[in-house]
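pls read this stuff:
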Amino acid sequence: MLPRLALTLLALLGAAPALAPAGAQEAPWPNRPITILGGFPNGAGTEIYARRLAEPLSRALGTPVVVDNKTGAGGNIASDFVAKARPDGYLFLLGTAGTHAINATLYRNLPFNPLTDVTHIALLGDVPNVMLVNQQRTPGLRSCADVLAAARAQPGSLNYGSTGNGASTHLAGAAFATTFGLNLVHIPYRGQPGAMQALLAGDVQLFLNQSGPAIALIQQGQAQGLAVMRGTRLPALPNIPTVQEACGVEMDTSTWYGLFAPPGLPAAIQARMNTEVARIIRTPEFTEWLVSNQGIVPPVDLTPEGFRRVHAADITRWAGVVRSSGAQVD
């Protein structure tokens, strides 16, 4: 038999891992896969952006970056999930002006605070709307002037589709109707596929869609663009006039994409993530993809503080549009 002292030493050696210092550091971040969550179905602009960002971000951080979706409630399910998640640097949210500015007024009872229950990482770009028509179904609508004339001649005769009640595509149409004093009928659909199919089938006459999917439809010859709903033309659609050029009134219904983390993210992780995302966006290849493929305007200020300022201002900006549209979700 072993002496009592030897048995005691063996017991202590076996317990050594448990006796590690309480302040021992976890492996440096990141040391496992990171997830970027989106709140909309496959094929949505947010998912397209997240997947494009994930590859260079994975290389920069030296760990896999996975894109996933939690859909429903206008993006609120994903937003609430991230708002309540552990701020350990392994979960981020690709949010929008819809999820974190429009929904602040649109929904009566949100389970999270859109401005404070996040850590701001970086603004990812402004997303303009483009007024689309299907001239095979509505040959009389060849300009914004035609749309205004038809809507005024027979109030309530023109429909416009959207990707959902309270979505940015809905509120862009509502803002257009309010600006010009028109009676347009809103028909909401469940996401991009339904709204685009409605336009192609002639079930709606107008669709003020986000620039990325709008560019694809125009380039494929399936729809025609009558106006870009902002103050300057898009390089990807140089022949389509601005709303001021086409309709005679200046307005801007652009929204944005942004990268968030759960509240309380350590400052060092926030800074590192911001640095890498900003560097990727500024590369010529990524900027070209944003501008020429998606019609997204790259942000000027890529700091977390700049993003928070835009975010806070947009909650106020869209509150007025939501109230004037009458849209409300319980």
The CA atoms of residues 216 and 293 lie 8 Å apart.
